[in-house]
Amino acid sequence: MITKPKGTYDLLDIEGRIYKFIEQTATNFAENYNYEFIRTPIFESSELFHRGVGETTDIITKETYNFKDRGDREMTLRPEGTAGVVRSVIENKLYGNRHDVLKYYYLGTMYRYERPQKGRYRELTQFGVEAFNSDDPLTDAEVISLGYYFIKSLGIEKFSVHINTLGDAESRDNYRDALLEYLKPHINDLCEDCQKRYKTNPLRILDCKADKDNPILKNTPKISGYLTPDSKKRFQKLQSYLNYLDVDYEINENIVRGLDYYDHNVWEYVTEDEAVALGGGGRYNHLVETLGGPALPAVGFGLGVDRLILEIKKITPEQPLEKCIDAYIMCINEEEKIHAITLAQDLRLNGIIAEVNSNNLSLKAQFKLADTLNSSFLIILNSEDLQKGIITIKDNQTKEEFKMDEDEVVDWLIGNI
Ligand code: HAM
């Protein structure tokens, strides 16, 4: 038997239905906030991610799927969505001379060669939004609140938003020096990865998952002591706007994010037991320039759809997401079958979910199947009635049964489902 690749899964049944629910809700939310849909390629030239996400990040050093295409070009399956959207904004010159905020959302698969475990896959789906051309913390707050109310609208309550600021380059340089100074006598007490991070990317040590109870990491200097007045003000403004927007947040100075492009405000949506990040985002005012475009401020987030599915499965009884249909059409002989398929088509073209007996089942088996399919109504056809243009409808909940003209069924069902 050929099996699925390690770290992937088939999305079907209840999980498939939850996915479609998330997809619809995400689309509605993003469009209400005036975001437009964008789809960028699943593979891009490797250089995009090396320059965009950062050479020393875990994603680039350990997790990318790389290949050479037949033209000998170095390609990478996208590990995240932001770099591709930025490339597209630059390549399509979307930045122009404009005063509006350029807003895009996407839903798509990303690929990271991680150690698979529950909620951590090698093929993952993200719902992301990216807003360009506003440097105002108001936009940061709007983006955070979009994600916050989106998660809530899925029925997930036990999470909060952890916010932090990484400041500007000056704040980060000062902070990096202080952190290196503090950690210097303790280098040998750090995990192997963090010993490397000390040299390459010391801020990421704060985010170490392997060694998070190490007291040395609990007592590190905090970035808040090293912020420039501008960075401090942006962070305060963000908090004030989030208060107005009624977003439940807490400040967590250990949020440093795993990608290099961030500056100023960053955040993660974290489950209550803090075991899982449902998503994360932040401001990235220099990425467009880093990738060859003009100076264009930006902010966005990516939410892990696979993790949202797991959360929804934990809290939602199966009932509301159980599959159901509106009408099951029962038929036995050839004449009834013809009526059944044409009626089913009429119903379907009018937005009613209809199914017919396509397996030559007995009447008894059809009644049983209609129950299994959770059909709200049964439409029972018999040749004698059909000749008079009449059919029988049965309400599958109340078990009430009555006859009506075949021509009236579509309108009647539209009014009664
Ligand atoms: P990220 O924090 O790397 O950010 O990923 C965002 C979310 O994707 C994570 O919080 C998590 O829910 C989900 N995720 C990441 N890796 C996996 C995995 N292996 N399996 C399942 N879910 C996973 C970004 O990707 C940024 N591009 C977000 C962003 C957009 N920042 C600004 N704009």
Name its key features.
eight-stranded mixed beta sheet; 417 residues; BirA Bifunctional Protein, domain 2; elongated; alpha+beta; 2 domains; Rossmann fold
Can you put this structure into words, describing what you see?
The chain has 417 residues and is an alpha+beta fold. It folds into two domains: 13-168 and 228-318, Bira Bifunctional Protein, Domain 2 (BirA Bifunctional Protein, domain 2); 323-416, Anticodon-binding domain (Rossmann fold). It is 38% helix and 22% strand. It is built from 15 helices and 16 strands. It has helices at 13-32, 46-53, 58-63, 82-91, 137-153, 169-183, 192-200, 215-218, 229-244, 287-290, 305-315, 334-349, 363-372, 383-387, 409-416, and strands at residues 36-37, 43-45, 65-68, 74-77, 102-111, 123-132, 159-165, 249-251, 265-271, 277-283, 298-304, 325-330, 354-356, 375-380, 390-395, 401-405. The strands form three sheets. It has an eight-stranded mixed β-sheet. It has a five-stranded mixed β-sheet with strand order 13-12-14-15-16, with helices on both faces. α5 (137-153) runs parallel beside α9 (229-244). The longest helix has 20 residues, at 13-32. The model has no long low-confidence stretch (mean pLDDT 95). Histidyl-adenosine monophosphate is lined by residues 80-82, 112, 114, 119-121, 124, 126, 128, 130, 258-259, 277-282, 300-302, 304, 306-307.
